[in-house]
Amino acid sequence: MPKQVDHEGRRRQIAEAVCQLADESGLEGVTLRDVAARADVSMGAVQRCFRTKEEMLVFALGHIGERVGARVSARLTASPAQSARTALGHAATEVSLLRDEHRAEARVWLAFVAQAAVSPPLAEILRSNYTGLQTVFTRLISEASDTEDPERAARTLLALADGLTTHVLIGHLSPATALDVLDGHLRHLWNQKAP
Amino acid sequence: MPKQVDHEGRRRQIAEAVCQLADESGLEGVTLRDVAARADVSMGAVQRCFRTKEEMLVFALGHIGERVGARVSARLTASPAQSARTALGHAATEVSLLRDEHRAEARVWLAFVAQAAVSPPLAEILRSNYTGLQTVFTRLISEASDTEDPERAARTLLALADGLTTHVLIGHLSPATALDVLDGHLRHLWNQKAP
DNA sequence: GCCGAAGTGATGCAGGTGCATCGGAAAAGG
DNA sequence: CCTTTTCCGATGCACCTGCATCACTTCGGC
């Protein structure tokens, strides 16, 4: 048999390059040539890994979705002793991508969300990600409080987290202010039925 | 003096075309040629109204910002007799662009937000819009309830509204669900200190 | 009535895009 | 060592992009 190559590894390497470029100049700054150069492979290699550009973008989106999801899970399993309340706080903070080191991820996320509004395949990936997060949030909320409608609370929290990310990215809020808003919301969530 | 033309009117006409195209295929689908064709003017006319493409986009963003702001103001002044609470509810619903007839505006808004993350001039426009909205929300909230921190509540509401818009656009939430979430949040806002 | 300036729109241009193609390099089996 | 099969990477090809150019139309003032 002839030369064998780690396809999955190369795909991830390319996805990483896509994210870097999207962070720097938006999704429309992502061209096959630039991606190949950034990933230190030839353009032909990129085209063999992904039949089309859209396929590449879809994979890259799934890639960062997995990364965020993994971080959330890590936060949850790493602190099983703490209360579900602090766990939810950590998870929400993680999803909001408010920390400076995740600003790049946030920009990439926003670029993909905008593209997803006019690209069904991308929207499909995002939907499954959000559904997963909402499930986790719902579970945590019903464990941590006696809110009457945990699902609605989870939807609220998820939307708030995304809105805060957006507002930080365009410079309307500072990361610290966004964190303060998130904390305040969580506090009200706990107090609303158990004063 | 030679031929005179309504420049401002034509600019608005072009901005309208930009919004239509951005709604259909995202901001990267907005080319000078397509804009000219959609606005029923020649490409030269577009280039005379706006020195560069970015200048055109900035104007278009300001245009839809004004439209949303005008709708919010209209809602507020049209119902002065009602309580500040219902006024805030109407304003928040308006900002969320949840009604079907505003779906196009929402897609355009999202496209611009994503672009603003890598384009300072666009971000500047968005920031001033959000600052204005936040001021209005803060005033309404402090009038309508005795919340200890009206500014934080306003920031929360604004971020929640944007997050809901996003989630509806990518199909994670239905408009009705989003409205339900928004209503629930407003109800909790009133109850939190006056049970 | 016509003159000249303001506004118009077709065309040109250099650069960049995604995708297809094809000669050749690399690795297993004989 | 050589063949053969798989993969690689450079190049080519239409096409489209934003922007600049320039002959032309149009209209107010004399």
Which superfamily, in CATH terms, is the homologous superfamily of chain A? Tetracycline Repressor, domain 2
Q: What is the count of helical runs of chain A?
A: 9
Summarize the amount of helix of chain A as a percent range.
Answer: over 70%
Query: How many strands, which pairing sense, and closed or not: the largest β-sheet of chain A?
Result: none
Tally of discrete structural domains of chain A: 1
The greatest inter-chain interface is formed by:
A-B, 49 and 49 residues
Range of strand content of chain A: under 5%
Query: What oligomeric state do these chains adopt?
Result: homodimer
CATH class descriptor name of chain A: Mainly Alpha
Structure description:
The structure is a homodimer of 195-residue chains. With 195 residues, chain A is mostly helical. The first copy, chain A, has one domain: Tetracycline Repressor, domain 2. In chain A, 76% of the residues lie in helices and 0% in strands. Chain A is built from 9 helices and no strands. Chain A has helices at 7-25, 32-39, 43-49, 53-78, 84-96, 103-116, 120-144, 150-169, 175-191. In chain A, helix 1 (7-25) packs across helix 2, helix 1 (7-25) packs across helix 4 and helix 4 runs parallel beside helix 7. The N and C termini of chain A lie far apart (70 Å). The relative contact order of chain A is 0.11. The model of chain A has no long low-confidence stretch (mean pLDDT 90). The interface between A and B is large, with 49 and 49 residues. The structure holds a DNA duplex (30 and 30 nucleotides).
